[in-house]
Specification:
The chain is mostly helical. It contains nine helices and no strands. Helix 1 packs antiparallel against helix 6 and helix 4 runs antiparallel to helix 8. The relative contact order is 0.17.
Amino acid sequence: MSYVYAAVIGILIGIFIFGLKTGVGCGFSTVKKKDVLILASGYFLIPIILGSLVEMVDQSYLEGVADLGMTLHVFIALFLIAAGVYTQKKWNCGHDVSKKTFLVISVPCPVCLTALFVSCMILASTLEMSGWKVGIIVGLVFFISVISSTFIFRKMKRTPEDLGTTMMFLGLFYLLGAMIVPAYIKAKKLSMEFSTGGDFDIVPLLVLSIFIIGGYALNSIRGQ
């Protein structure tokens, strides 16, 4: 029983942390409180809908989405970086576009929706509850996370420029993850095949090194 409680609490904490991403977008932008409430309410309803579909959706569809996981991460990463640069550039020119660009970081993406669906599926199986009831629990946690984190981030008195920085950082994090995970998986496979005399492919490591060096150089140039 303790294992079940630990698993449930772990998943709910993960969902709460996942909601912080939306809270950052709402808290660092100048979007109205009414719009934040609408977005949070949407995040409350989405898990209920997804939970209701738990028993109807074939798991093979999830496998297809998982196969596209890294591709989606790269696409989202590039989109976040571009939106972050655009937000900062416009803010420095005296224009606030955060009311629009915050959607890039706050609106549910395919990865987010898949994570919510999988969370509902695992919780429904673990707690032996119907999907829509689990969806209410997940949605409530997400709603509280979005509202509370938005309130806290707004107390920090941040500007849309900080939103742009956060979006770029998160985009780089996504991009880095999209490179490291496949490289790690490949390295694990190569470690098992190393005894057969296979050649070690250092391309992923070279790409990662170039990425890190490029980021350091860009930061140095901006600091001058």
